[in-house]
Specification:
The complex is a heterodimer of chains A (448) and B (262). Chain A is mainly beta and 448 residues long. Chain A is built from 4 helices and 21 strands. Chain B is globular and about 75 Å long. With 262 residues, chain B is mainly beta. The chains are: A mainly beta (448), B mainly beta (262).
Chain lengths: 448, 262
């Protein structure tokens, strides 16, 4: 995933502008948007219809209460605080079934000790309609594509990297999309067709909590420009998948936008304002996963077509790229699994890129390479989990290490303690720039 | 003359004392224990009991469908109700007798289906004392089977079969199985470690007739060295319910149909 956002932080000043605009992170989800409102209205209406017959439906409520804290161990935060994350959270999941419909609502209420605020967040909320040959899901939903482990090529859906770097449970890395997904299941293959009318960007670390590289720290006038919500800008994603000779095979297509912001300075020699935008993107990709060499072998590739700058001459728009991933996972002994991944990305018009990139801004490499490893050992009847995950950038020399211990005290209560350690590379490289943000975290959850 | 013939037969008797071989008994036992019916569904409650008596509960619905003869391919679909942190997870296995299984896990929190790499032989099933092989069966060809004796167990006539792995791919050096001569269900198993000491014991604690198929509805595996044990009860089970092939797919891993998992 991280290579996919290579050198993005210096471009992403979303965080820096967080205080002045309501365009980042959690608050982003609550922006009023006509299309979003329409979807909610539709969802609300469907829920109402549904509730009228809810007495006949099969309803269940589950959820959890959670404490999640992460403390910096390298240095105090840019704003002087010591915590990257500190919150208590309650999640309620409501499931209601009445064939052929299914309603699911996952709502979080939380209290954030750093910003001293309480809020409510709709994590997921959708209605399913299922028939024999097809189904439909409308509303806020999480979509995960591809075969990478934290390396995303064809998973073009929004992520919350702040959650990942702050030591939050992994599920918070994925953000929901507001849209409609149709599943078709003819004999020849299965299809997922997704339409997303409202753009949702990635969420990156908050500049008050995380040190990041900023090429123009003195420019404080910053603005974010989202793609307008209209028919033409509706994102489309298609996945076709089937078994071919015992291998899980998928092909992917996406037409939409980059989810990381790219900067447009108003004037290069004397910048007074930076506008961040999300350039147009199409992705064509494929993946294969299957049993091989006594383990599971994964292959994935994607072609990133940067539609706004196919010549690669505009420095405010990323160059087109080809990305390839190879992964292998194997159980080496009882309850111990090792996974390794190699990722590479290749810039299509590097000479144009080099020419166009203004002096003073760090340059991406033509070929980026990243390795990842994951080791997991389960102990004590799988109630104790020791894990280690690490990214190492072969091209940049920077790294992330994430060791974690998780213990299930009972069937309902678990706790995890871990750390995120960053370093190496340059002060602008993806993990290198996070060097001063090493943190240890605690997650405690009671599930019901 | 007849007298001599009788004597001769009596002398030969120990050599082929049993009408069937160990291989045949284990083959029938596998068919009775793991391949009954065209398909099978059970609501399974597993109680993991620590040495000190602390309990953890795993509750799931398991669906199984056979492809071909007993001993052939099978597909498994499991949906977890408990514990809370794995609720709504589903797990699918394509089991092949002669090669490694294909396995997929669906993680609902991130809406992701992933293949998982796990070896059958020594992996614990959801942290219990049962291995994957105990749940879905071990290749008969992997062991040498021989009938040691016949004896009564709880009033039932049994073959006692010794199964010794041909390769050292499992934790035990051999296993003794008490197989009911009537219905061929394994009523008791003892696992001996490399030093020849008994370390794991299985017992079938309740057998019920379901749609004419004798079915072990309560069973237990105890690790005698750690003191940990696992009790499994089938609180609902049924055969030949017409499980569709399409159930064993990514589509239904992500959205398990209520009618199959309830």
């Amino acid at each position: 995933m991280l290579a996919a956002m290579n050198n993005l932080f210096y471009r992403c000043h979303c965080e820096a502008s967080a205080s002045s605009s309501a365009s980042c992170g959690e608050t982003h989800e609550f922006r009023l948007n006509p299309a979003r409102s329409c979807i909610y209205l539709l969802l609300f209406f469907l829920t109402l219809c549904f509730s009228s017959s809810i007495y006949a439906a099969d309803v269940s409520i589950h959820g959890f209460v959670q404490g999640n804290y992460s403390a910096g161990i390298a240095k105090s935060n840019p704003d002087g605080g010591d915590f990257k994350w500190a919150e208590e959270r309650v999640q309620l999941k409501l499931d209601a079934n009445k064939d052929p419909f299914h309603l699911f609502l996952k709502t979080d209420a939380f209290y954030d000790h750093i910003d001293t605020k309480a809020d409510i967040e709709l994590r997921e909320g959708y209605i399913d309609y299922t028939s024999e040959k097809w189904d439909l899901r409308a509303g806020r939903q999480v979509i995960t594509w591809g075969v990478g482990d934290l390396i995303f090529i064809n998973d073009v859906f929004p992520k919350d990297y702040e959650a990942f770097f702050s030591g939050r449970p992994l599920e918070y890395l994925k953000k929901g999309i507001d849209g409609v997904k149709i599943g078709l299941y003819p004999k020849i293959a299965s299809f997922e067709l997704i339409a997303i009318p409202i753009f949702e960007p990635n969420n990156y670390t908050d500049a008050r909590r995380f040190y990041m590289f900023d090429p123009m720290p003195n420019v404080t006038n910053r603005e974010e420009r989202d793609p307008a919500t209209n028919f033409e800008n509706t994102e489309l994603a298609l996945r076709a998948y089937r078994d071919i000779a015992g291998l899980d095979t998928s092909i992917y297509f996406y037409r939409g936008f980059y989810r990381k912001p790219y900067m447009i300075p108003d004037n290069l020699s004397n910048t007074t304002k930076i506008t961040f935008h999300y350039p147009k993107l199409s992705v064509y990709g494929a993946s294969i996963q299957g049993r091989a060499l006594d383990g599971v072998l994964s292959l994935e590739a994607g072609d990133y077509d940067s539609r706004q700058d196919r010549a690669g001459t505009d420095y405010t728009v990323p160059n087109s790229q080809t990305k390839v991933l190879i992964g292998y996972q194997r159980q080496l002994w009882e309850d111990f699994t090792a996974g390794v991944q190699y990722f590479t990305e290749y810039m299509h018009d590097y000479s144009e890129y080099k020419k166009a990139q203004p002096g003073g801004l760090p340059k991406d490499r033509k070929i980026g390479q990243l390795a990842a490893i994951r080791l997991t050992q389960l102990l004590m009847h799988q109630t104790l989990k020791l894990s280690f995950f690490s990214f190492y950038s072969i091209s940049e020399g920077d790294y992330l290490m994430n060791p974690e211990i998780k213990y299930n005290f009972s069937d309902n209560l678990w706790a995890a303690v871990g750390g995120n350690i960053f370093g190496g590379g340059e002060r602008w490289s993806q993990f290198g720039q996070l060097d001063k943000n090493d943190n240890v975290y605690l997650q405690v959850r009671y599930e019901f | 003359m007849k007298k001599y013939l009788f004597l001769l037969m009596a002398l030969l008797l120990p050599l082929n004392a049993f009408a069937v071989t160990g291989d045949e008994v284990m083959k029938k036992s596998q068919a009775a224990f793991l391949y009954q019916g065209k398909d099978f569904k059970a609501r399974v409650v597993m109680k993991l009991i620590s040495k000190g008596g602390a309990e953890r509960i795993r509750e799931l619905t398991m669906l199984r469908k056979n492809y071909g003869e007993p001993g052939g391919d099978q597909k498994f679909f499991m949906y977890f109700f408990k514990p809370a942190d794995v609720k709504d997870m589903t797990f699918m296995v394509y089991k092949y007798p002669a090669k490694d299984d294909d396995r997929w896990l669906f993680v609902p929190a991130i809406n992701m289906v992933r293949r998982i790499a796990a070896q059958d032989k020594t992996s614990s099933f959801v942290g219990s004392d049962f291995t994957y092989e105990d749940v879905s069966g071990r290749d008969l060809q992997d062991d040498n089977h021989s009938i040691m004796k016949e004896e009564k167990l709880g009033g039932r006539d049994c073959y006692v079969v010794k199964s010794a792995p041909k390769a050292g791919d499992v934790d035990y050096s051999y296993k003794l199985s008490w197989v009911d001569k009537g219905n061929f269900l394994p009523l008791k198993e003892e696992y001996y470690d490399k030093r020849g000491e008994l370390y794991k014991a299985f017992s079938a604690d309740e057998v019920k007739n379901i749609k004419g198929f004798p079915t072990v509805t309560k069973k237990k595996m105890k690790n005698l060295q750690s003191g940990h044990s696992t009790e499994v009860s089938y609180i609902k089970s049924d055969y030949n319910i017409g499980v569709a092939d399409s159930l064993f797919s990514e589509r239904f891993l992500k959205q398990p149909p209520k009618k199959w998992i309830e």
